[in-house]
Amino acid sequence: MSAPDLKAKVRALPDKPGVYLMKDRLGQIIYVGKAKSLKRRVASYFIRSRAAVAQPKIRALIDLIYDFDIIEVRSEPEALLLEGKLIKEWKPRYNTDFIDDKRFLLVRVDLASELPRFALTRLRKEDTARYFGPFPHSGMLRKTLAQMRRQFGVLLGDARPQPLPDGRWQLYDDVRADLYGHENLLTAQAYRARVEAAASFLEGKSREWLASLRAEMQTAAAAQEYEKAAELRDVVFALEKTLLKTRHFERAPDVFRTDTVALESLREVLHLPALPARMECFDISHISGTFVVASMVHFHDGRPDKNEYRRFQIRSFIGNDDFRAMEEVVGRRYQRLTHEEKSLPDLIVSRAPRPLRFHRAPARRRSREDRRGRRLRPEARRRAFRLPASQGQQRVVSDEYSPAPAHSPAPSPYSFSFSASS
Q: Residue 162 and residue 164: Cα distance in Å, rounded?
């Protein structure tokens, strides 16, 4: 597979907003970024002067870039929303923002409530509430809601209205009743009319308020009331940013389907007869030889299948022996699959470190500089095993350190033998 001509791809990029994805030689996405101009932003990664002065993390990223893909969007807020979604989905190793579960803000209006309030949330639930958003600019959104409270007389999430004996409601019992300039005592039906007007504005259907604010701003500027004009300008800017329409990206575009490329590269490296569509990986962990557990992750078509993840407790012995622990959990896993007549994975990856053998230099008089001792380097080797021919063409790869001489442990009841391949 020939390397892509990155310079030609950069020259063909559009001068439009969008999201770009940097990939390594295996086709894995290692960085996701957004850009106001895809052409200028992506080209900046291949400028030698930038690579020379960039931080070590950026230099390492640039050295790993083998190819890239882009997705055009209509505006910068859309690029921000799509960038966050893709980072959460792919978790590239060189991205630090959006890797947690934090989401963009939504506005929630609970229509089942007698007095619906406009509250902020980050999770969209399956309920009777009405949701607006997501909104990429949280500061602008909060300012917009504050202005909507003044303009339409609606309640926000911090309000605590009180019912009155005559069936009406008191929205505020403090100075806010006079500050916002709306009727404070009203019926639920009258308040719902306010909610409908505010919701219509938040959907972008009603622009009269924005037009009146712009006219008021021009009037203040003509009268040389610059502080008032600047305040109105900030309000208009916040409202326009909030109402800027963005698309919802529920599924990743097809351009991200690079799993087949990565699987093909893995097949070539390991000399497999077919693509490893189903993979299972094992690892052992403990705390100073105690609380020994094993974990298994499962991949289907190159994507994690968390429903198939497993965790094992070690049953056959007590102590710190990672190799025996790996023998037990691998044996238990595939004994069970065989007993249940289920298919085995195409590729099994395990890491089973044994006690390390250290090689020391011949004894000699130590100098003052190395009195504390030398750093010892363990010899590592990689071995590959094949399952018996009756189980198909599965392949097991393990990282294993050369063992120190020791007595052989008792046979494990969970043994599941592999025949070594040259």
A: 7
